Every structure is written in structure tokens, then in C-alpha cells.
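pls read this protein.

:::
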Amino acid sequence: MSERVEVTLSINGRDYPLRLEPRRTLLDAIRDECGLTGTHMGCEHGVCGACTVLLDGQPIRACLMFAVQAEGAAIRTIEGLAAGDALNPVQRAFIAHHGVQCGFCTPGFLMLATGVLARDPDISDDELREVLSSNLCRCTGYQNIVTAVRAALAELRGGAA
């Protein structure tokens, strides 16, 4: 067993002082050490996007990063997306436009969409489809996911969904 190191992860505005092996992934630390199980473990190879979180506002695959690399960064998980009982526009759109089927991929899609829409509110339809294609939905719910993200984008732009 490797020697453990001390690291503090800032997740959803809360600091989590941890003592863990340097080889632990950010995904494992979030789920196992911090108890935030909304971030899902899918392929563990960065292909499916189920583990997508925001790191300093940018969507990243938590399975591809060591937890120690995230020290000093602001991490946002699905648990930190809503503001109390007030759902984020992307969450509301997924509900309204049936962007959820089994729900396994949903946290990753929500975090990806939130990060992308915040970074590029003028994203084109083609660019949006390209970005969303980086995450996988095993229920083939892609059309409703795209529709939901477009609706959230329209709301964020101040228009009707």
C-alpha cells in the first residue's frame, strides 16, 4: 500500500480534508471519501462521461484525474448544482423535456451541459451536439437530452424554451 498524503478538496463550497493514497482518482475520493455518490462511475477510462464534474467551472472526467491534482480547485458535483430547493435551469429542462431515462448518465450530462453553457452561452446548435456527443447514454435518450439542453440554453438567454 502506498503512503497516504493529506489533501483538501473543495467540493460544492465545502472543504473535505482527506488522507488518501496519491493514486486515488478524484472520482473515488468524491464518492468513497466524501460520500457524494451522485457522480457515477461508468467506464473508468474517460469514455462515457458518467463521472463528469466541474473543476474551476470546466467539465472534466473525474475518473481520469488524481484527487491530489484537484487540490486548490473548486469542484462542483451534481449535489451542488441546485441552489437549495431551486433547481438549476438545466435540471428543470431535463425534467420538462424528459431528458432522463434510467438516470445513470444524467449527472454527467447535467454537469457537462452546465459547464459548457456557462462558458459559451452563444454556442451553436452544431457545436452543442458535438459537445454532448462526448457523453454516452445507454438508453439512447439522446434526442430528449439535446432538446433539454437547448431549452436550458434558451432560458439562460432569456427566451422561451
About this structure: The two ends are 53 Å apart (CA to CA). Residues 133 and 142 are 9 Å apart (CA to CA). The chain has two domains: 5-80, 89-156. The mean pLDDT is 94.
